[in-house]
Amino acid sequence: MNRIVLIIFFVILSFKLSFALKIITPEDKSYITSPYVYVIAKLERDDATHVMITVNDIKSPLIYIASAEYKSQFRDYIIIDVELDNGENLVGISLFKDGKLIDEKRSIINVIKPPKVLPSGANRFYFHKEEKEKECLLCHASIENCSECHKRIISKKYVHGPAGSGDCNVCHVEEKKDNVKYMVSENIVGICVNCHDNMKLENYKYAHGPFAAGSCEVCHDLHSSDYPHQLKMETNDLCINCHQEFKKPGITHVVSKHPLSGKKDPSRPGKMLQCSSCHNPHGENTPVFFVRGVKSRMELCAICHKK
Q1: What is the 3-state secondary structure (H, E, C) of 215-263?
Q2: pLDDT of the chain along its 307 residues, tens only?
Q3: What is the rounded CA–CA span in Å between residue 65 and residue 51?
Q4: Where exactly are the structural domains of the chain?
Q5: Whether CATH 2.60.120.10 fits 20-140
Q6: Is 4 exposed, middle or buried (0-12, 13-18, 19+ CB in 10 A)?
Q7: What pTM was estimated for this model as a whole?
Q8: Which residue among 63, 268, 284, 301 is buried most deeply as judged by most CB within 10 Å?
Q9: Of 37, 43, 38, which Cα lies nearest the Cα of 22?
């Protein structure tokens, strides 16, 4: 009899613990293309005193959540804005009562940067679903200004015009698609050329792969970046991500000892030599995208090497 009571006790205890904490975002085994995400969890235990957030191997200090000040701001939610690493990330939330762990939940989320390699079995993570927005509207009467929540994505040095001016509806539509709001067209380039009409595909006889596929976001951050032209990395680093043959130290290209970086670009005053000195990253009139419409290697060399 005592054994049965003990088993029932542990079943009830396990049931209580399993519902002490519920992760709302990020969804487990999902992927995103921006490194910024809100970790949001609902507390199902009003006697919890502290919480700890873990992102990969980095642990936050214990956060005191039992104060009246915290409750007035966040009620029974945990809301932390974090920056993730490229690739797979393990996000954990640990809930404590007076130093004793009472629940722990984990979620795996992948950040996909160029070149895109989607993890097996992962689904794209979207926050703006009706069931998730309901959680926000318990505290926020309405959310009309995107920058209230998305400050981080426009915090870099070079900001995309519509994002910086708050005209998010230039690219995002409020109407739901598959129960998700603020989606963008699958064909990103179709949106981009509405403003960047010089980047129309028909302008080029030969087009670079990502551009031809309509995947501007492979190379450009669509909101803000620390690199000119809102590139996701330095130009050469971005190119080498796909063109791995140029990754080895001391590698040369075209002719022996020709530098690929680290020297001033004679054809572009004030800029350094890089892949885009010779190749248009979008497309051109030759199969290898020689800049300025030139059609031969000798003509290309003559841009810098005058007679």
Answers
A1: CHHHCECCCEECCHHHECCCHHHHHHHHCHHHCCCCCCECECCCCCCCC
A2: 545 444 444 444 444 444 688 888 889 999 988 888 899 999 888 899 999 999 998 999 999 999 999 988 888 898 888 889 988 999 999 999 999 999 999 999 999 876 667 777 888 888 888 888 888 877 776 666 787 788 888 989 999 999 998 888 888 888 888 888 888 876 677 788 888 888 888 889 999 988 888 888 888 988 999 999 999 999 999 998 888 887 777 677 777 778 888 889 988 888 999 999 999 999 998 999 999 888 888 888 888 887 6
A3: 7
A4: 20-140, 252-307
A5: no
A6: exposed
A7: 0.75
A8: 284
A9: 43
Q: What b/e readout covers 27-62, taking b as 16+ CB neighbours within 10 angstroms? A: bebbbbbbbbbbbbbebbbeebbbbbbbbeeeeeee
Comparing CA positions, the residue from 40, 237, 245 lying closest to residue 132 is 40
Look at residue 184 and give its three-state secondary structure. coil
Residue of 1, 5, 31 lying closest to 122 (CA atoms): 31
For residue 165, what are the contacts with CB-CB under 8 A and spacing of at least 6?
none
b/e sequence 82-121, b meaning 16+ C-beta within 10 Å:
bebeeeebebbbbbbeeeeebbebebbbbbbbbeeeeeee
The alpha carbon of residue 6 and the mean position of all alpha carbons in its chain are separated, in whole angstroms, by 48
Task: Give kind and range of the element (H or E) at residue 160.
Answer: none
- Is the separation of the CB atoms in 193 and 207 below 8 Å? no
30-32 and 100-111 as β-strands: parallel, antiparallel, unpaired? parallel
What is the CB-side half-sphere exposure of residue 38 using CA atoms within 13 A? 18
